[in-house]
Amino acid sequence: MRFIPCIDLRKGRVVQIVGGSLKDGSPDVPKTNFETDRSAENFAQMYRKDDLPGGHVISLGPGNRDAAFSALRAFPGGFHMGGGITPANAMGYLDAGASHVIVTSYIFSGGHVEKNRLRSLVKTVGRNRLVLDLSCRRRESEFWIVTDRWQRFTDVPVNRDTLFQLADYCAEFLVHGVDVEGKMQGIQPDLVEILGKHAPIPVTYAGGVKDLSDLDRVKDLGRGRVDLTIGSALDIFGGNIPYRSVVEWQRSNQ
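-> structure tokens emitted (254 positions)
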């Protein structure tokens, strides 16, 4: 298990928001936990210095291209790039230094898996450079993949069958527990268990981390196979968990 760092961007600035509060075409401002003038490039340089590859740069809407490119160039091969990725723009981010691109809405257009789009993207970037974002919300007894700023439910559950079917098309999965994302009130243990038990390829979970003990909890629940992203809870994003303590945890577990 690894700690996976992140850089979330909105209008060119590094932010942390509450999952599901960002809506396309809505005049409402998303609930923001953190916003800073510190550049995306600066965060990327810090992650590079601390030897934390495999992180995520996520574009939350328009106006983030320059900031994203600055981060990717500051840590070549150190980040996966997500947010509005299509075959038309994917190679631009890879050429700028991203190791992988992350895709959700383009693939799950219309509420279900668009296999033709998925194959097109694989053909463009290669399976080994593609990450599928299976971020999900609970509905009744199951978790269902959500798209369009996490507002729209698809007809695709997060379970063994889905994980095995989609693993043929990508190198990794990224899964946000949207119901708890950014709330710092605890992870979704049953979702982590599903990922640890059934994901046949590397997978990263994000959402709800509230203290340092959640690192060990995810390690146990995920059988050591589920990596963990922490955002709002870190002190570098205004939270209470010391970033340095997480880096030390990572080094002691390598």
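The longest helix spans residues 115-125.
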